[in-house]
Amino acid sequence: MLNSATNIILWNANGLPQHKHELHNFLIQNNIHVAYITETHLTKTLKLKLPGYSAIIIATNLVHNLHSINPQTNLQAVSIQISLNHVPLTLASVYCSPNKKIITQDFAQLFISLGNNFIAGGDFNSKHPVWGCRSTSPRGGDFNSKHPVWGCRSTSPRGKILHKTITDHNWSHLVPTGPTYWPTHINRHPDILDFFIYSLPSNLPLAISNIMDLSSDHTPVKLVIDGVTNQIPIRSFLISSPINWTHYKKYLSDNTKLGIPLKTAIDIEQASVTFVEMIQSAAKLSSRPCNNYSTTSKTILDKYPLPGHINVLIRQKRKARVKWKITGYSNDKRIFNNLNNKLKRQLRNHKNQFYDNYISNLNPTNGALWNATKKILRHIEPTPPIRRPDNSKITEDVEKSNVFAEHLATVFKPNTIQTNPQHSARVFEFLDSPLPVSMSAKPTTPNEVFFYIKHLKTSKAPGHDLITTPLLKQLPPKPIILLSYKFNSILRFSYMTSIWKHAQITKLYPISNLALNLNTPQSTNCIESFIISH
Q1: Which of 97, 130, 275, 521 has the fewest Cβ atoms surrounding its Cβ within 10 A?
Q2: Which residues is 525 bridged to in the sheet?
Q3: What's the pTM value of the predicted model, to 2 decimals?
């Protein structure tokens, strides 16, 4: 699946855990795919879970890989790699502490390690008039650097260093039109500390803007990239709403033809495809249009709705913040703080109430309580990356497949053993001998087919055709009769149709390893799914 535009935000949170609910709502409201968050104050033992997102923070439906960068002691950075217009692009979130000494080589080493195409954003703590700062102090982005080149009134040492690094390597900077840092001290002025440094093709449109949302002394910066990115394929569903079973059964009864020929393998194959397509059409026509889940703004808002009074508070807080930024009056700031604290309380209460309703509506008889328990206790281990012999990561699907193919061809080889010629001759003689005559398989009946369908588990997951157990259990008599005809033809010709015979090979990773070493013993799981087993 492709996404036509990618939305990125840059925000200095100054402590992320206390802004969790506010940030999650912001990401949903603005349809954010990637969020650069600096000053998170997170630790190794403190987990942050946002439904639909994972840290850097990345939308879970966006295809990405963790990108390795050269370790830095004077700055903090994390990066991922995505595909933009089918070209690899590295996205990096950077934070430069104002208390650390950073030299030109530190910035150059960081940006060079990101590759030819990258977008690095963060709190550079660097000031330079080029990116809009009022004064020039030690950094730019919250790269904690100031320099007149990015719009500062004066230039700081770190701003000069960052600007020189960008100029020497022909990189570009992208800054918002307004300040991103709003100090609480009355003697300090708002400034631009959060911005982007990038190296991209010149024909790629970019749009940047300030957003007066979220609670911190920094306001978010939104970057929109007009390029196509890859998304993880969405799980498909044949139906997503209640079905009119009367219409479903009538459609199947009217369109089922019992007089079709089933005398050759081609006839069986065509009849099976037609039968599956008929059930799929009946299900679609008997229900409302299917809206598959995707991380668009409307769909996620439907999944995580906010009550009206919270939406009103969000608008009031946004207006109050804009007014305070314009006037700077202490009374306007007090009004903004009151609305901000009230919004946080309301979001926290709404979250708790939502969870209480979810728990109270769990039914122990239909498996919902067990599924909720399993979801809470489930610990998902990250899939280790596949590496080349030189320890570099493999990100391309074709190269991964080739590496696995070479590994499996090396591992699964016939045993080199010395055989007895006389014994081998007896084995081949037995294998080449004709099979003994056996009785033909007993034909199945419509009642037998109905019996097995009736005893299928309702919660059983559908196959590739997306036909669920309830759809099979609601089949009228005529399609069941046709199904028994097909099964008897399959048994008579000893031919299994391709639409009902699929296999999937899944590599089982050694999760305990940090990275997949192909020399480690592996196991292969071959899963075959058959419609007919009797």
Answers
A1: 521
A2: 506
A3: 0.67
At 64, which amino acid appears?
H
Tally DSSP H helices, then E strands, for the chain: 14, 19
Which domains are assigned to the chain? 2-230 (3.60.10.10)
Q: Cα(124)–Cα(144) distance, rounded to whole angstroms?
A: 4
In 471-501, which positions are buried (b, 16+ CB within 10 angstroms) versus exposed (e)? bbebbbebbbbbbbbbbbbbbeeeebbebbe
How many residues would you count in the chain? 534
Indicate the DSSP class of residue 455.
Answer: T
**Pairwise CA distance, residues 177 & 183, whole Å:** 18
Tokens 């369109």 belong to which residue?
A: 255
User: Which amino acid is located at 204 in the chain?
Assistant: L
- The closest of 305, 282, 292 to 472, measured between CA atoms, is 282
HSE-up (13 A, CA, CB side) for residue 188: 12
**Residue 460, CA atoms < 13 Å, CB-side half-sphere:** 18
The whole-angstrom separation of Cα 77 and Cα 56 is: 10
**Pick the residue with more confidence: 254 or 241?**
254
Give the pLDDT confidence of 290-340 residue by residue, as tens digits.
Answer: 444 333 334 455 556 678 888 888 888 888 888 887 787 888 888 988 998
H helical segments located in 381-420: 397-411
**pLDDT surpasses 90 at 465:** no
pLDDT at 528: 35
Give tens-digit pLDDT for 75-107.
888 888 888 888 889 998 888 888 888 888 888
Residue 291 is given by DSSP the state: -
Helix axes 477-493, 446-454, angle to 10 degrees: 110
